[in-house]
Design brief:
Layout: H1 3-25, H2 27-34, H3 40-71, H4 74-93, H5 98-101, H6 104-120, H7 123-134, H8 140-168, H9 171-178, H10 180-184, H11 186-198, H12 204-211, H13 219-226, H14 228-257, H15 262-290, H16 292-314, H17 319-347, H18 353-368, H19 372-383, H20 387-407, H21 422-425
């Protein structure tokens, strides 16, 4: 695979998750800048609510950009996604504060988060499809692993950058201008990504689809009519993957910081994410050798088994015990995340691949998985038990893991140019 294809594909995905990490890390500061209130908790909750707006708009973005990818090409959809993400993130960096323009400040922030959500709705699966359609059949898992690894690396980069800023400038400077610096990085990242993506050729699979006059004029409608069962399978895959990933990327650090140091919690979480990044290529290669089904089902059931002991380690008060717990959790999560990157692409036929994968992933990883850290925190606060969030995660992983063991077809090795339906011809019921 040409190196320019890999670089152009990964840079947009990196930008998306870098923004995710930065917004979460400066949420307290953004609450003071855009939602001033006498109660700091109210400001923080308002800031986090705006953070969640993007997840509400992801399914719509998945439908729009997925359809663009099927009708006009994967390259066009990827270029539109990186443009939307980078422009919105850069504009957030230069937004006036509430003290400057009043009500318009939070309103504009909400609108820009909506644009980010729309753009991100087609980024992950669009990038996965682009890499997969270029990769040799026996290396698709390894190539898709780069998508998952780049997302984890971007979260580490964003988190560490914010921590460095907080240790360099005082709180007043951080609230005045310091928080803007990480968001400004979206401009060069986005411009580079757009330039590289516009210079790419279409994937071989899409070129063949065009040559055979197989491009669908209404891919989303075709998906909803003929791929409903596949959509449900893909939705389940995305949901269990996303819930686990947001626990690893967000909730574990929050649980660890209760009664402890936020800085220590974020550093431990970032170190565990680096372990996850290293594990992703191994998971991809394993799936190329033994298949997607055993890796996916085994990783989901491992989440169910590990949820309680991992949460106990994370909440033990020991940074080393928390790190051990997160690393244990990172092993099956790497398997789930990499499988989500490739299986959602392999499940759908070529003419509806972008639409089907983007809609299913956005619904599962957006409203379902995106609310997992909030639900987990609410369960912990409401019950007073750290085990409640663990049981929530274990229940989701167990139910979906058993369901996937019954209905998930083996997709490794199938031709991505084939217009048959793997969920129907696999022999599973």
């Amino acid at each position: 695979m040409p190196r320019r294809v890999v670089t152009a594909t990964l840079i947009g995905n990196f930008t998306e998750w870098f923004d995710f990490a930065v917004y979460g890390a400066v949420a307290v500061t953004l609450g003071r800048v855009f939602f001033p209130a006498t109660d700091s908790v109210v400001s923080l909750l308002a800031s986090l609510a705006v953070f969640g707006v993007a997840y509400v708009f992801r399914p719509l973005g998945g439908a729009l950009l997925g359809s663009v990818g099927d009708r006009y090409g994967r390259r066009v959809a990827l270029s539109a996604a990186v443009l939307g993400i980078s422009v919105a993130t850069t504009l957030i960096a230069v937004l006036p504060s509430y003290a400057t323009i009043g009500f318009w400040a939070p309103l504009l922030l909400v609108l820009l988060r909506c644009v980010q959500g729309l753009s991100a709705g087609g980024e992950w699966t669009g990038a996965s499809a682009f890499l997969a359609e270029y990769a040799p059949p026996d290396r698709r898992g390894a190539r898709a692993a780069l998508i998952s690894a780049s997302g984890g690396l971007a979260i580490v980069a964003g988190t560490v950058l914010v921590l460095l800023l907080e240790s360099t400038v005082d709180p007043a400077q951080m609230q005045s201008w310091g928080w803007r610096l990480p968001f400004l990085l979206a401009a060069p990242l986005g411009l580079t990504g757009l330039y590289l993506r516009l210079r790419l050729e279409e994937t071989p699979v899409y070129q063949q689809l065009q040559a055979e006059d197989g491009v669908s004029s209404s891919p989303l409608r075709d998906t909803l009519r003929s791929e409903r069962r596949t959509l449900l399978i893909a939705f389940a895959c995305a949901a269990v993957t996303g819930v686990g990933f947001y626990y690893l990327a967000t909730y574990f650090a929050n649980a660890m910081s209760v009664g402890g140091s936020r800085r220590t919690a974020l550093l431990v979480s970032s170190a565990a994410l680096l372990v996850y990044v290293v594990l992703c290529p191994l998971a991809g290669r394993l799936s190329d050798r033994i298949g997607r089904r055993p890796v996916y089902v085994g990783a989901a059931l491992a989440h169910a088994v590990l949820a309680v002991p991992v949460l106990l380690l994370v909440g033990s008060g020991s940074p080393w015990a928390a790190f051990l717990g997160m690393c244990l959790f990172a092993v099956p999560q790497a398997g789930l995340n990499v499988m989500s990157s490739i299986v959602l692409v392999e499940l759908f036929p070529a003419r509806t691949r972008s639409s089907g994968a983007a809609v299913a992933f956005s619904l599962g990883a957006g409203p379902i998985a995106g609310t997992a850290p909030l639900v987990a925190a609410a369960l912990a606060a409401g019950t007073g038990s750290p085990l409640a969030p663990a049981l929530y995660l274990a229940s989701i992983a167990l139910v979906i893991g058993l369901a996937l063991a019954k209905v998930l077809p083996e997709t490794a090795g199938r031709s991505l140019a084939d217009d048959t339906h793997p969920a129907r011809v696999s022999g599973t019921t």
